[in-house]
Amino acid sequence: ATVPPSDPLRPLWHYTPPSGWMNDPNGMVKQGDTWQLFYQYYPQDTVWGPMHWGHATSTDLVRWTTRPVALAPGPEGYIFSGSAVIDRNDTAGFGKGALVAIYTIHDPVRAKAETRDHESQGLAYSLDGGMTFTKYAGNPVLPNPGGRQDFRDPSVFRDEARGQWVMALSVGDHAEFYASHDLKHWRFLSAFGAGVGAHGGVWECPNLFPIRDVQTGRDRWVLIQNLNPGGPQGGSGTQYFVGDWDGTRFTLDPEFAQRIAHDGPAWLDAGPDDYAGVTWNGAPDGRRVFMGWMSNWLYAQEVPTKRWRSAMTAPRDLTLSGIELRQTPSREIASLRGPRLPITLSGDGGRLPHGLLPSADIELTFATPPGSSFALELRNKEGERLVAGLDAQGWYIDRRNAGRSDFHDGFAAIHRAPRRRDTRVTKVRLLIDRTSIELFADDGATVMTEIFFPTSDFTEGSIVGRGGARLRDRAAWPLARNEDPI
Ligand code: FRU
Predict the structure, then answer these.
(1) For this structure, is 422 an active site residue?
(2) For the complex shown, is ipTM > 0.90?
(3) Which of 194, 297, 351, 368 is most buried by a 10 A CB count?
(4) Which range marks the domain in which residue 368 is found?
(5) Is 289 inside any structural domain?
(6) Would you list the DSSP string of 442-476?
(7) Is 465 a domain residue?
(8) Residue from 148, 202, 204, 312 whose mutation best tests the ligand 1 pocket (most atoms within 8 A of CB)
């Protein structure tokens, strides 16, 4: 068994920076055997500050090695969010196979002088797998056309069919698309999103990518569009759009347009704590792997961790079925499993075995006749508890009594998500990691991510079925990296 790290709030397997402040994942790209992960990072403090790109690498998406800071702010400004590509054919002239980072340059000096932000897009390249970078001398490559507020978070990908690089950019209340042949010169293509989808806040961190519809085998396109505030639980949130990309324009699928007109925005995650998530460029085997920042700008800077702040979500594979985006925990997570432990049945539920928590992978299948409900409850010796389950109103996670909440009014809350399947047999998978839970339900169409801060680890747990719900199948494994992450 793994000895939990001495810091009781640090996850056992989700990525966290050893120290300092972290927000958005950035520049995710698969390079050879390496999954590259960069992130918004401020090493000097545990609150947001002059932004750097931190760096971590992995060969399996779940065991990460922290690397030296990749990009540091300079006189030109802070290094905000962005993406990375591998320039196989040396279109930019930095070298064959260069890792090129495309990011927002945020100029705090001009922002202060002009009382509005000042953002443009720049490049930096690495010829040694992201260990050292050179900032391009010709920055910015996409200057601010003048007075454009919130002009940021370039997400670049290779549009193979058209032989061009494409950039999705967030611009206040919409996304814009640009094209380039050399990553250095960008031409405006089109805009999308004003008046469409959720607009309770600023659009940030877009991500446009192709994805195969498993129903028809046809390639469709998904635009992930983060926004803050205005998320499903208040504060930060991630919506998505399903449609098509013709090399110039992103158009909504008509059925999807109807769905959001009728049901409201399509949230990628219905919980409060999954923000700024985007996907890896260059993942093999047609995979589309997603990772988000497991926090919310409402309280990210106040959560009670010391020395470090924030974790990333688990890696998740995205699939598309018709107009429904689904998420499955990436299969590599199974490699973190310890021996499968038995959940003993008790009443219509069961009891979590000793040694399973505080971090676990739990799969539950319930018989759910109409009107029934079930819940999983985690407890510690202080009597604190975290509850997740399904009731007449749908899926929920209840952190009202899950530990510390004094740092933010409204943190202690119950969060709900509509159920997207009405079946007599209901499956749910829960990824728990000391201070977080990720719930995958409705074939991955409903995901809820939530953080919490118990006084001591949740070590006990039980499952209850009510109103005729009965636990049918169950499987549970402790999850841990096989070394202390720090
Ligand atoms: C999203 C965000 C991005 C920005 C970055 C700054 O959380 O606000 O829009 O680039 O964080 O750290």
Answers:
(1) no
(2) yes
(3) 368
(4) 337-478
(5) yes
(6) GGGTEEEEEE---SS---EEEEEEETT-EEEEEEE
(7) yes
(8) 204
